[in-house]
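Internal tracking record. Fields below are filled automatically when a chain is submitted to the structure queue. Please do not edit lines marked as system-generated. If the sequence contains nonstandard residues, flag them in the REMARKS field before resubmitting.
Queue: standard
Priority: normal
Entity type: single polypeptide chain
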Amino acid sequence: MSEIKLLIAEDDKEIRELLKKYLERELYAVDTANDGNEALYRFRQGGYHLVILDLMMPQLDGIEVCKAIRSISNVPIVMLTAKDHETEKILGLSIGADDYITKPFSIHEVIARVKSLLRRYMILGSEGEEPSQHLLIFKGIAIDPKAYTVHIEGSQTALTAKEFELLKLLASNPGQVFTKTQIFRQVWGTDYIEDDNTVMVHIRKLRKKIELDPSQPQYIQTVWGIGYKFSGEKA
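SYSTEM-GENERATED OUTPUT FOLLOWS
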């Protein structure tokens, strides 16, 4: 496998260097930026497999950088913030971040989350693999878990890593109802669910991308008081 490159955008030098030090110990190639403009400049040079973004940075903040990256790439993004407010978390997730970590944090937790995201991203991004023989095909939507692609009415739709994992989980088990805790365990890889909004935000984002009318979803349906299920009709 080729070298795995990470980008850390953080204006606090101590935190930036701490993250770089420990992630390099995991044999990742790590570049850093101390403001939003530098982060975007470096990212546009290409080749990054994951980005860690501080929410509050000079020049451009993490939200604006995340939006800009999302406009050109589905690379996994982890948001860091000193703010422990629900609105900040929802905002970060709603504009395309795949994960969210509040400062102060455990460096080992950051490494674990980075590894989890990279495992999923490497599966979707590996080149030279043969197309999957286990396509999930329903009326109007085709999902290829191997190539990590989704086609809606024949047109490919870009999803983030978390959105795809969420869709794959539900579509692989059509008709089965998953609670928010079950979804969090399967998609985020942990039993600990900090709040229901993490799942709800990703469901809302996913519906906007795959549903003809997100307010009346055809594929991802809410089972009130329990969770969600996939209701696509087999093609």
